TrEMBL record, chains A, B:
The protein's name in its UniProt record: N5-carboxyaminoimidazole ribonucleotide synthase
Classification of source organism: Bacteria, Bacillati, Actinomycetota, Actinomycetes, Micromonosporales
Pathway: Purine metabolism; IMP biosynthesis via de novo pathway; 5-amino-1-(5-phospho-D-ribosyl)imidazole-4-carboxylate from 5-amino-1-(5-phospho-D-ribosyl)imidazole (N5-CAIR route): step 1/2
Limits of the ATP-grasp domain: 100-285
Keyword Ligase: yes
Amino acid sequence: MVGGGQLARMTHQAAIALGQSLRVLSVSPDDSAALVAADVRIGTHTDLAALREFAKGCDAVTFDHEHVPTAHIAALAAEGVKIYPGADTIVYAQDKQRMRERLSELGAPVPRWRPVAEAGEIAGFAAEAGGWPVVAKAVRGGYDGRGVWMLADAAAAEELVRTGTPLIVEERVPLVRELAALVARSPFGQVAAYPVVETVQRDGICVEVLAPAPGLPEERALEAQQLAIDLANALGVVGLLAVELFETADGLVVNELAMRPHNSGHWTIEGARTSQFEQHLRAVLDYPMGETSLAAPAVVMANVLGGPDGGMSIDEHLHHLFAADPGVRVHLYGKQVRPGRKIGHVTVLGDDMTSVRARAARAARRLQEGE
Amino acid sequence: MVGGGQLARMTHQAAIALGQSLRVLSVSPDDSAALVAADVRIGTHTDLAALREFAKGCDAVTFDHEHVPTAHIAALAAEGVKIYPGADTIVYAQDKQRMRERLSELGAPVPRWRPVAEAGEIAGFAAEAGGWPVVAKAVRGGYDGRGVWMLADAAAAEELVRTGTPLIVEERVPLVRELAALVARSPFGQVAAYPVVETVQRDGICVEVLAPAPGLPEERALEAQQLAIDLANALGVVGLLAVELFETADGLVVNELAMRPHNSGHWTIEGARTSQFEQHLRAVLDYPMGETSLAAPAVVMANVLGGPDGGMSIDEHLHHLFAADPGVRVHLYGKQVRPGRKIGHVTVLGDDMTSVRARAARAARRLQEGE
């Protein structure tokens, strides 16, 4: 796995169960996965020579993030490396303009959008799309709320354009809530779909995932799953595809695509019969897909973020949490605490979504802030 | 963790979730845990200098097996190393004679037994204990059916005694079935008990574990749990204690003790809210214990043993298994296949014990023998 973050860390846990060991290409020996994997190579994902050396002897190569240049991926594939998802596929998770174009071609539901180079174009789009505010997105490189701007007026648009960031602009979708549909697809073409979840964001960062999405009508859940399956097939995804969706009064709208284990799927470690991490490995290693059914009627994952002071003793907080709620499942990523940084997550399973959600939120708060 | 077998391998998976990384003292770099852990030291558990070097900088030291000399454990403890279970405790899992003596003192239910040095003593015991056959056990070093002999007559006793192995002899208990009671105890003295399971043996090797033990009356389950809790307290166990039990028409009898993650607890990885591996870590790191409740009404673990030809392609068999039953959980240990060697296990969760057991047995057979 290229990239040594928490996704690679948790993928390593899944690899161990399959009798495998994950080789990790990590920028630093202190990265989450580098701290726990047996076979760590230090190198940069933008360095083709490092990637080539890394890939030698791997059964398959896949990614913890979407920042590997597609030219490098294509070069390795041409040399016979089994590398998934391929360059022609992952580009739609790297480049929001290409993604919007392709989804529009495929007839998938997307917001009104436009590539823009000048502030005047943004103002023009705003005038057509129902007025300010509009949403500007960096074509490349955004994550966790970075690279997304809510523009209130022409002045804000002007300021953003001056940074020189390549942008697209989108209408602000009047959303009821956000959902995510996670599927995995093997090279053989088998696709498995997880139950559709609700994702709860704060400041652009996912803080909670509710599985299954509470009160989602079955036909809408099926529609979301079918949409994700169709996109996985159309884009030729191998591995996981997470489709981030807006639920609106008028139906579903695709927000973003990710092609790797995804924060919206962390609940599957305990909450589904097959975790997304194992599923991703099964896909890229061309094994048959695993069962995706829920392990409990209600599953909630809550992210644990570094507190504003950054000075918490996670170990002490963990003691308090374990004493207070012995049934919470904890995943810590071995990261230095920084304000707002995802340093772990908790998962709670139960029968009733309201109480499960309250327990998960309390547990995350306890890890962040102590008692 | 001293020892690099599958127990350390699975403990590493649990350590990762807790934000830790397991350091492993492994005899060989090919050992199960050495293949997947980030911090592996090669050395022998009987070498005090290696143990001392290994322990430097560890928060706590514990064991994947019971073969570390108690003198070494005591020496490290005297030097300030947090090492669990301690020498005065683990001796009861190392030395069957000491274990039987101590259990007899504590009034725990044990078979009639006697230390023996001569064949005549075995014959004398057999005469007193209801006749042949009787069970002879090596005082030290037995596991997975090794070090246990069913003696049919005086000639067999004579032959065994001639090997010079220090022995105890026990009556053959007329058992209904075998059970196991697993508890974990922290240095603080908190004890958590798992549901009592049935263990199914073949040729002295555990092949299946049924959780909870089917049809076990609640009062007998509570009795087994209480017995394990009492023993953990009386022996000062820190970490896991597995009490292997015979269920007889007249009640429970203690067969063996183990003080580490145990094969009878592998089902807890998916089948209980807290896995035995995390629980062991929580105990030796002095965290509060985790919830032990079942994740499904019926959970079955089946061991996967190397087939007689030793030539199976585990990878091909895994493909078949995943295609045939996408809901089976698989754990492979990264071991070379040898006849009868435990190379992995499978776990199935469900509502009905009969069908869950059949699925688990079929899955283990598929991994062992293919279609």
